[in-house]
Amino acid sequence: RVAIPSIPLPTRLTLAPHPGTAKATRPVKAAVARADATLRSVAQTVRVDIGRLDHLMNLVGELAIVRGGLERVLEQVRSEPSLRQLARDLGRLHHGFDRHLASMQTAILEVRMVPLGQVFEKLARVARQASREVQKEVNLVITGAETEVDKLIGEELSDPLMHMIRNALDHGIEDGDARERVGKPRTGTIALNAYQKGNQVVVEVEDDGAGINVKRLVRAAVEQGLLTTDEARELTERERLALVFLPGLSTRSEPGSLSGRGVGMDVVKTNIGRLGGVVDVQSELGIGTKITITLPITLAMISALMVLVGDATYAVPLSSVQEALLVDASSVREVEGR
User: Fold this and answer.
1) Total domains, the chain
2) Where does residue 62 rank: exposed (0-12), middle (13-18), buried (19+ CB within 10 A)?
3) Nearest CA to 130 among 168, 161, 90, 187?
4) pTM, whole model, 2 decimals?
5) Residues 151, 71 within the same domain
6) Residue range 80-115, pLDDT digits in tens
7) Separation of CA 246 from chain center
8) Integer Cα distance of 291 and 202 in angstroms
9) CATH classification of the domain holding 126
10) For the purposes of burial, counting CB atoms within 10 Å of the CB of 203, is it exposed (0-12), middle (13-18) or buried (19 or more)?
């Protein structure tokens, strides 16, 4: 037998956590919350092959052709006074069809869009690594990372932008001592900016480096047989700067550690042109250089100039149209009966 003494028990028992418990569990709760948010995000996300989106956009195009047929039928019905009620009913149906078709087109285009920040993050790493290679101090300032473009454009834009940043570090930004001698801060700046302009996206790469020596550029083009002396004299300032895009042109006698002898800007222009975009360069000696890329927001749909020739209608991509002129009928001359 064991004798158990009689001990009075409390009528209410209160458990208090240790003072450090709440602080210790806070990071765990935050991690659980982040994991939960990630799982919810994954549950609401579906990976879609870009080919399927292209197929959907093609179907939208076919529906647009059907819409055009409905418009012609509607015009015929409206021309009959006895079918006015039918014309009104068809008009309402056509209006609803047109509205939903436009909404479908917009929704498909939005699915294809990705923020440029995904590309810019990679470029920030490239800039850090390249600055160490050339032993130059530089800040990469990024704005407009939330600007969206077609996924295919974003993927194709990565390499040209990477080349331009490496080129700016190697050819544009001076070393710290040289910058201080001309009154510049020792650390150089490369600004990467993106914004939407109408149905286009503009991406700018600007540095505060030495700028482009246009006279040396023209002289190198003549010496390398890319330009004659007479042609060089006729060039405007903008055309002289555009010489940087000539294949094989370089103002360096020795290759640089990052971008060689300057070869590659022609490839940048070609790749951007393949995406339906254009490249423009501005530079001031001793101040810096700014390269501007203008691209369509999406490759799934292009703007076109509609042209009527006889009874046939043609669509000419606006990227291929340089100028549209108004011509008087009296100014038209026939050649060989045409």
Assistant:
1) 2
2) exposed
3) 168
4) 0.70
5) no
6) 888 889 989 989 998 899 999 889 888 888 888 889
7) 24
8) 10
9) 3.30.565.10
10) buried
